[in-house]
Structures are given as structure tokens and as C-alpha cells.
Design goal:
Elements lengths: L4 H4 L4 H13 L12 H20 L20 H11 L1 H17 L14 E6 L5 H12 L8 E7 L2 H18 L5 E6 L16 E7 L9 H15 E11 L3 H21 L3 E5 L19 E4 L4 H10 L5 E11 L4 H4 L9 E4 L4 E3 L2 E8 L2 E8 L10 E3 L2 E4 L4 E5 L2 E2 L1
Parallel strand pairs: 1-2, 1-4, 2-3, 4-5, 12-15
Antiparallel strand pairs: 5-8, 6-8, 7-8, 9-11, 9-13, 10-11, 11-12, 13-16, 14-15
Helix pairs in contact: 2-7, 3-4, 3-10, 5-6, 6-7, 8-9
Length: 413
Amino acid sequence: MKVPIPLTNAFGEEFEQTLARTCVAAGLLPDRADLRNKRFLTRSVAPHVERLKELFNRLQEKDASSGLERYWQKGSNPENLRLAYFLSFMPGNLYRMASIWSELSRLGYRWPAGPGPLQQLRAIEFGAGPATGACGILAGERFAPLGLPAEGNFALIEQDRATLALGESWFADLQLWLGGPAYATRPFHRKLDPSKGWLPRTAPRFNLWLMSFFLNEFEAPASDIARSLLDSWDKHLDDGGLVILMEPAMRLQSRRLLELRRELLAQDAARGGSMQLLLPCLGHQRCGALEDAEDWCHEEVSWWRPPYLRILDDLTGLDRKSLPFSYLVFSKTRSSRAELLPALSGARHTHRLVSPAHRVGPDWEFYWCGQEGKRRLRLKAADQEIERGSILLNAEFRGDQQASRIDRLSQLI
């Protein structure tokens, strides 16, 4: 994934001051200057970051449910715990979502023009927290636009009232700083239960559907979650609408997303095939990462962290100069992938790098994924950038799944 430089550089002083204003107005930060006050961060934020880090890391255990207590449950200093999440984890998750948006833009996707239900943005974010995904869309559209309509709104669904209120304020403040369309927010305080449906039967239709870090909250098998999602998309997602699903890059959670991908594709095909998988996969092929029980698939993006976050990372022993995550993007459409992503048009074969590229003698060595599944390849080094997320068009290669060589490559994007 190649994120545009304006987006990687967007989280500097002005972003930080906007964040500080939101925190002060919400009563979470005594003064804007405290955002870089090491004494304040050490006493009031860093210990709660450590607590949250422990909770998130427990998702790596076989019993993922053991780490699912609510982050800001009632107890000792819930405001500081909420502040710790907002300052430490929210900005990176916002950037992850914006990076996904920028990848759509890079490959030529544009919001459909002309009359129809997509001419007013009707977005919904499930488990919105402090409107993290919605704000990621705002940042992505500002620095890597798809051409969203000038009018619309975001429905925010979150089970914690205080966090939901914080999200409304943050969305408004960030939107004011970024400029562009003035979208409204509609907050809904609600606990999700996919067995009862993601939305009430009487809910309206949407054209942008966001879900971040949601699989760890449900013990239902992937087949059941896929069925409930497809039922909801059939009733509540406009034709031409987009779905973005994002999960942690940890093995168990990433594999759950890949299992959900498999179920969504299989069940959708049985229903007639209304959903087109756009990213990161470049086809509906069987997932190569699921072939090995110890394997998984994730993306990784780099950014310039906000200045205060560098201080906080030093205090907590974290290093978030790069951000890993797993994701899927679907469109509800009968159009082909090449029609929706013009950068891929005319390509007979498409493959994406799913690992870093390492120099081995005169070659690059890496893993890619395509219609043939996942395999290891070598490519003669040249004066072109190749990295995780790069897409190779019309590559001619030879060899087996463990060791192949690319003989000819028409384009690298």
C-alpha cells in the first residue's frame, strides 16, 4: 500500500492542536499544553495505555473473550482510561482507515456520479468508539479524494455513551480543520448483537458501511457473521455502496477476517453474487494465507506520528512509526473489478505483494498472492520501488509454489 505523502505528513502540529481542543472541551485534558507535558502524560495517561495494551494483547490468546472487558468500564479513573485510548490508539486507527481510502484512490476508484441514491453520503460506522473510522474517511477524502458528495451524514453506533459523545465532538472539530463538506453525525447508543441483525428492520439504506475491530466482540462462527452481514447488506446497503472491514494484524484476528472473507464470498455466490471484493485481494480466489494454520495476511503503513504521540510512545515502550492491520473492501455491484479500479484495467493477471521485499544477491525476494494462491518469488532488482502492497500486472513467471522467478513484468503499481 503506497500512501500519498500529504496524508503521511498530515498529523503534525495542526492535527495535534485540534485534538487538544477536543480533549479540553470534553474535560479530559486540563490544558492544551498538557498534551506534551511529560509529567502529566506519565501520571495520567501512560499507566492506562499500559492497561489497554495488556487488554489488546490478550486477544492473542486462544480464549480471546478473556480480553473483552470494556476498556472504559466504570471503576478507577474512567476518564483517564478514555483519554489514554483517544490519545494513544485512536490516531493510528484513524490513519489506517484513511490509508485504505487512499488505496482505493490510488487504483482509480471514484464515487459514482450522476443521479441516484449515492448522490448523498449516507455512511454508518459500527462500534464507532470516538468516530475513529468516520474521521479516517474525512482524512482520506481530504488527501486522497474519491469524490464524495457534498451533502450527507454519518450514523455512529457505539455502546459507551461518553465515548460516543466524544466522537461527535471530535468529528466536528476534525472536519472543521480539514475543510470540505460539512457532514452531520447521528449518534446511536446501542450494543451490537449480530444474531439479532446489525440494524432494525425499519432502518434506512446506507452507501458506506464501516466496521473496525469488531470480530473480537463476537464468539459466533464466521459462517453466522457472514450470513448476518449479507442479510443486512441486502436490506440496508445501496447498489454501488462500499463496505470497509478492518481488523488487527494479530494472527488470530487476521485469520478470523480471512475466514469471514471465505464465508462471505461463498455465501454471496450462492445468493447470486452481488458483492465484489476490491481490496486487498485482486480476485475472489481461495485465500493462500489460510492454507497454513500459522499464516495470516496483513498490510503495514508508515506515517509521521503527531509530536505528542512520539513522547507517549517513548514513555510506554511502544513504537508506532509503522502500523499493521488487516482489511477487506467490498462493493455491492455487478461491475467488474477492472471497471471499478481503472489502474487494473487491461491486466490479464494481477498479483499483490503480501510480504516485505528483501534483497537476495541481485534479486528481490518476496511473497505474493493472486489467482494461483500465495507463493514465494524472485525478481531481478531494478530501479523501481517494490514493497508490501505493491501490485504486479501481467507477470510471467516459472517455478513451483515455494520458489518461482518472474521472467517478465509489464507494470508495477
